[in-house]
Amino acid sequence: MSITQLSTALRQQDMHAIGPVTNLGATVESGNVEAYALGTFGAPADPVSAGYFGVTRGVFRMTYPFNEQATVVHGVVTLTDVAAGTSATYRTGDSWFVTQGTEVLWEIDSDFFIKHFFAVVK
Q1: What is the pLDDT of residues 33-91, one digit of tens each?
Q2: What does the H/E/C string look like for the chain?
Q3: Alpha-carbon span 59 to 42, nearest angstrom
Q4: Rounded to whole angstroms, what are the CA distances from 27 to 11, 50, 56, 95, 111?
Q5: CB 39 within 8 A of CB 12
Q6: What are the Cα distances from residue 119, in Å, to 6, 13, 62, 94, 111?
Q7: pLDDT (tens digit per residue) in 7-42
Q8: Average pLDDT value for the chain
Q9: Which of 62, 94, 66 is closest to 81 using CA atoms?
Q10: 80-113 burial string, b = 16+ CB within 10 Å, else e?
């Protein structure tokens, strides 16, 4: 058995740069949104994975390619379910769940945002 402690002290420089969020299929609406990642379980192409995901300030939209439970580690984000038109703002310690196929508008309200996620592909 292995236990991995999740850090709330993770910083941008602790993560791996993966380029603009457009590389992940997102559409940028404002800003120059760069993405960062650090895995804690599995790999992005695996049916189940977990890790940290970070982005710089800006606004982008993307359709979720997996089901995800996430918790904010650093920063502030407002997420909008585009189809439903509902929004919520999340800060350090807050969590959410989103289903695969949901289009979400991300408004990063801090200079840098980090979440820890657990993702499952149907």
Answers
A1: 999 999 999 998 899 999 999 999 999 999 999 999 999 999 999 999 999 999 999 99
A2: CCCCCCCCCCCHHHCEEEEEHHHHCCEEEECCCEEEEEEEECCCCCCEEEEEEEEEEEEEEEECCCEEEEEEEECEEEEEECCCCEEEEEECCCEEEECCCCEEEEEEEEEEEEEEEEEECC
A3: 28
A4: 25, 23, 14, 23, 19
A5: no
A6: 15, 23, 15, 17, 25
A7: 989 999 999 999 999 999 999 999 999 999 999 999
A8: 96
A9: 62
A10: beeeeeeeeebeeeeebebeeebebbbbbebebb
Residue with tokens 């969020």: 21
Residue type, 94: D
The amino acid at residue 108 is I
Structure tokens at 118: 């657990």
